[in-house]
Design brief:
The chain has 388 residues and is α+β, with helices and mostly antiparallel strands. The protein contains 13 helices and 18 strands. 48% of the residues are buried.
Length: 388
């Protein structure tokens, strides 16, 4: 039995309230709060990037023994900081993982962390005494005053994958789907994404339905074998648009239970925004940390991972006895509560800030609001130097 032994998330501690954003853009706030289903959006300072956010998510769940046992660090990201050197190499160093580990970065839009999870699960199945660290870390950027702006966000998730996991066993049968489409993409020369919004919604929904049919055919599992579903969540309404049609002809109690649990899984995304690769796993933490769920040991959760471009995958997991004792609910909710609200001018200033691109040595101004453990300290002749 292999799966998620520990899990955590990190998000920068500054955010913009989406009523403030809507008013500044001359949009009815109900469109954002109700229509899109988002309330707040994390905004990273220049001192937080995919490396620091990933390290900040992973550090609290790693003990000394883990650092010796981790053989593999996989970082899923679509907002990495180098075209060549992987985010994983920086994180390996910052966390102090044993030297004979391999650290890599995987890219396929928001699907990258799931590719990492599958790689990690396979590795641990072959090496049951060893562990893997999977990270999804991203800054979502569409641009100021664009239709995608309200679905930005920033954050990272980290998961330790091991034998005899204490939270969730990943089941063996998964089904993936690849399609070469342009629903959302970001050419190397652009620091904001290009998106065909309506088409991206349609591609997400149709991918889920195609995969769900194939998943049921291959596994012989049916809807009633599931207690909850977690979705990749670019905004909280999205997964529900995909889920509702498959509930139409089902037992009402089952449908209501799945909708109820879907909603419990939306809370963190509603207050953080789209964190791309980590989003699906943020939804899992949001669900499991909520005291209103009725999930117990052996409850089966379905997962829908979607990365534009597009690769999607459905897999399932079963909760392990005592899972609730191994969640960092208190710390995570304190972290969310302690964040600082930005004015629209402060948000736009942070959005427009860029790191120096010349040959010089530059100290990065760490704002007073960034009290995270790991931060970007300096750019030294194009090398990123991190502080702890
Ligand atoms: N009060 C209440 N609701 C309102 C409203 C109001 N005053 N005004 C509008 N709404 C509702 C609309 O009816 C609509 O609801 P439905 O979706 O239920 O029909 C909703 O608010 C959104 O309105 P629009 O469709 O008019 O919004 P938009 O054209 O501005 O675009 C978006 C929305 C396509 C999500 C856009 O924000 C976007 O492009 N986001 C980025 C792309 C994205 O997130 N795609 C998701 C799938 S791709 C993916 O999942 C990968 C990934 O992470 C990027």
């Amino acid at each position: 039995m292999v799966g998620i032994d520990k899990i955590n998330f990190y998000t920068p501690n500054t955010y913009i309230d989406l009523v403030t954003l809507a008013e500044a853009r001359g949009i009815d706030p109900d469109k954002f709060i109700i229509g899109i289903g988002q309330s707040k959006m994390s905004v990273p300072p220049i001192s937080q990037d995919t490396v620091t956010m990933g390290a900040n998510a992973a550090f609290p769940i790693l003990e000394k023994a883990d650092l010796e046992l981790i053989d593999l660090i996989v970082v899923g990201t679509e907002s990495g900081i180098d075209e060549s050197k992987s985010v994983g190499t920086f994180i390996h160093d910052l966390l102090g993982v044993q030297p004979f580990a391999k650290a890599v970065e995987i890219k396929q839009a928001c699907y990258g962390a799931t590719a990492g999870l599958m790689m990690a699960v396979d590795y641990v199945r072959l090496h049951p005494d060893r562990k893997a660290l999977v990270i999804g870390s991203d800054i979502s950027r569409y641009g100021l005053a664009t239709s995608g702006e309200v679905t930005q966000g920033a954050g990272a998730i980290a998961m330790v994958i091991s034998s005899n996991p204490r939270i969730l066993e990943i089941e063996g049968e998964t089904v993936a789907l690849t399609q070469n489409i342009f629903d959302f993409w970001r050419p190397n020369y652009s620091d904001t994404a290009i998106v065909d919004g309506k088409f991206s919604n349609e591609a997400y929904i149709s991918s889920f339905h195609t995969l769900w049919e194939e998943f049921m055919r291959r596994t012989e599992l049916k809807l009633s074998d599931f207690d909850a579903f977690c979705f990749h969540m670019p905004y909280t309404k999205m997964g529900k648009k995909a889920l509702l049609p498959i509930l139409e002809n089902e037992d009402k109690d089952l449908a209501n239970q799945l909708i109820f649990n879907y909603d419990l899984g939306t809370h963190y995304t509603r207050h953080i925004g789209n964190i791309y690769t980590g989003s699906l796993y943020l939804s899992l933490m949001s669900l499991l940390n909520n005291p209103d769920h009725k999930l117990t040991a052996k409850s089966r959760i379905g997962f829908f991972s979607y990365g534009s471009g597009a690769v999607a995958e459905i897999f399932s997991g079963v909760l392990v006895p005592g899972f609730e004792k191994h969640l960092l609910k208190k710390e995570q909710e304190e972290h969310l509560e302690s964040r600082i609200s930005l004015s629209i001018d402060e948000y736009e200033a942070l959005f427009n800030e860029t790191i120096p691109k010349d040959d010089g040595i530059h100290t990065i101004n760490r704002s007073k609001t960034d009290n995270s453990l790991f931060y970007l300290k300096e750019i030294n002749e194009h090398k990123r130097i991190y502080g702890k």
